[in-house]
Write a structure and sequence with these properties.
The chain is an alpha/beta fold. The chain has three domains: 147 residues, Glycogen Phosphorylase B (Rossmann fold, 3-Layer(aba) Sandwich), CATH 3.40.50.2000; 188 residues, Rossmann fold (3-Layer(aba) Sandwich); 202 residues, Rossmann fold (3-Layer(aba) Sandwich). Helix content is 37%, strand content 15%. The chain contains 21 helices and 18 strands. Strands 3-2-1-4-5-6 form a six-stranded parallel beta sheet, with helices on both faces. α2 links the parallel β2 and β3. α1 packs parallel to α5 and α3 crosses α4. 45% of the residues are buried.
């Protein structure tokens, strides 16, 4: 296929919420393979809402199979709509026969999809199904479809996007229910639209929540609220659990749009759930979660690329994939309160950071809003933790001295913290994407011990030879942060230990700070000086870099206050 001849692509996405989340990495890969093409997403209404803010998509067409596109006449109508768009290529992540038929009727010249469901006749480029010898995760199943088109590497974790306005709306909605903006939130998703077989017992959910609630309050001293989520028809289930919970609880079952559900899930500090679509939404937002699995296959549909805690009771009849259990539901009744509670406890350092006393060395009166609007970008290896070449497991992740306390000072002053890190070990095959996510979960956990949370964490997984736009000093990661976090670069800083970090800072126009904790600090500084790229400040370690930012940013006017 001559990629330069592909100008307009239609992507047929999956129908189910969880499947659509698991397909997101592949959707992003389409944009990487065809960077200049116009990409149109064809999906059902709920999935159109889910991916409404996705940066890889130029346009979304809604497949209304219960309305104007119902029946054979509706399919012909949809094919006519697609024909008018004159697509060059159809990529069919949805496996159904009708997806291939509609793209054929639309006259799309290249039709690309798995050779399944008897539809090879309608595909110009049928792709053989992956081997059934090993259990292939659904994320990888979608990802592998693109390999004949030039896709490569390992699938990253799914990601989703909500707007600041959507987050603010959920904050207000919770506040109206008595759950403040600074309160911790436990999310509970006890239902399942797929069928009752996937549901854990509601009384056990309530008992786990009450026990975790007590621990979170004792550990952090913060107020804790509970939000119960669910689909239409699950209102009574949510209310039955709410009546047993001993704190402020809001039942949102059947009362949220897809976009509202996403913002609500993202607001949670801990998420307890069955194997459902919202479980994958929580994973995409990196919310610490505990998932109960019963009749479904945890090897293929578990949360991908995050350190989720899975609880299941191995029984001979699972996974059966049935909607209703024909016997005694032993895969779910066998899961105990102690098992789920124990799994939740492992997440508490992230869900409810300890309120540790501030070290005497860092006690200083700082206006809590003096750094409001300031963003500090942070390199990882050599800046936050020791650079050992490649950190290949969570056990190898250890912060450099004073890092947690120093970052806590920035957070207390109102700054946002965003990590931007090159991780070519993924592209080189030294480390799997899942392992990298576990390492980053460990990083967040270590920072949480000093009550530090990251506002963003971006990494480039590509091999240096890939010539991507995200490997530092290329600006791709900063550009994503600007788009997704609304970063004001006129009030931003970048702390790193390498020449690439300083070059990136100069390129995007932020203040650059070089720390000498990397493996070649002196040589790096000499090289930058020779090239006329001196950093704005040089510090022996991150704590002293933070001191400079606190002094510099608090006396520096915001962009709107700069005299003309």
């Amino acid at each position: 296929m001559r990629k330069e001849g592909i100008h307009r692509i239609v992507v047929r996405g999956p129908n189910w919420l969880g499947d659509a989340v698991m397909c997101e990495p592949a959707l992003s890969q389409v944009r990487t393979i065809f960077p200049h093409a116009e990409i149109t997403l064809l999906v059902k209404p709920a999935i159109a809402d889910l991916l409404a803010q996705h940066p890889a998509v130029n346009r979304t067409l809604v497949y209304d199979d219960r309305g104007r596109h119902a029946g054979l006449t509706g399919k012909w109508t949809l094919a006519g709509v697609l024909r008018r768009h004159r697509f060059d290529l159809a990529i069919l992540f949805q496996n159904a026969f009708e997806a291939a038929l509609i793209s054929f009727l639309a006259g799309i010249p290249r039709r690309f999809g798995y050779a399944t469901d008897g539809r090879s006749l309608f595909l110009t480029d049928p792709v053989s199904l992956p081997s059934r010898n090993g259990q292939r995760h659904q994320v990888e199943y979608y990802w592998d479809l693109l390999k004949p088109l030039g896709g490569h590497g390992s699938a990253p974790a799914p990601r989703l996007f909500v707007t600041p306005e959507e987050s603010a709306s959920i904050t207000k909605r919770l506040a109206d229910a008595g759950i403040g903006a600074s309160d911790l939130v436990i999310g509970v998703n006890p239902g399942s639209t797929y069928g009752h077989a996937k549901r854990w017992l509601p009384d056990r959910y309530a008992e786990v929540v009450n026990r975790v609630l007590k621990d979170m309050q004792a550990q952090s001293g913060a107020r804790v609220g509970v939000a119960i989520l669910g689909a239409k028809g699950e209102e009574r289930l949510g209310q039955a659990i709410a009546e047993q919970i001993k704190t402020r609880t809001v039942v949102c079952s059947g009362q949220t749009t897809v976009r509202e559900l996403m913002a609500l899930v993202k607001r949670c500090q801990l998420f307890l759930t069955n194997d459902t679509g919202p479980m994958h939404v929580a994973a995409a937002f990196k919310v610490p979660l505990v998932a109960v699995f019963g009749p479904t296959d945890w090897q293929t549909t578990s949360p991908y690329g995050v350190e989720a805690k899975l609880v299941r009771q191995p029984v001979s009849c699972a996974p059966c994939l049935l909607r209703e259990c024909p016997i005694d539901h032993r895969c779910m009744t066998g899961v105990t309160v102690e098992q789920v509670y124990g799994a939740a406890l492992q997440h508490l350092p992230l869900a409810a950071p300890l309120l540790l006393p501030e070290p005497a060395s860092s006690r200083r009166s700082i206006d809590p809003v003096s750094l409001a609007g300031v963003t500090v970008f942070l390199d990882r290896d050599g800046t936050l933790n020791e650079d050992t070449g490649y950190v290949k497991s969570p056990e190898k992740m250890a912060l450099l001295p004073g890092v947690g306390a120093a970052l806590a000072r920035l957070k207390q002053a109102g700054a946002r913290l965003v990590v931007v890190t090159n991780q070519s070990g993924v592209g080189r095959g030294y480390i799997a994407a899942k392992d990298l996510e576990a390492i980053h979960a460990k990083l967040r956990q270590l920072l949480a011990e000093d009550k530090v949370t990251l506002d963003g964490l971006y990494f480039c997984p590509h091999h240096p030879d890939d010539q991507c736009n995200c490997r530092k000093p290329a600006p791709g990661m900063i550009e994503r942060a600007v788009a997704e976090l609304q970063v004001d670069l006129s009030r931003a800083y970048l702390i790193g230990d390498s020449a690439r970090d300083v070059e990136l800072a100069k390129q995007v126009g932020v203040q650059s700070l070089l720390v000498m904790t990397g493996p070649s600090g002196t040589e790096t500084l000499a090289d930058l000086t020779d090239r006329g790229l001196s950093p704005d400040h040089v510090a022996d370690a991150l704590p002293h870099a933070v001191e400079w930012i606190l002094a510099h940013a608090t006396c520096r006017p915001a962009a709107s206050q700069v005299p003309l």
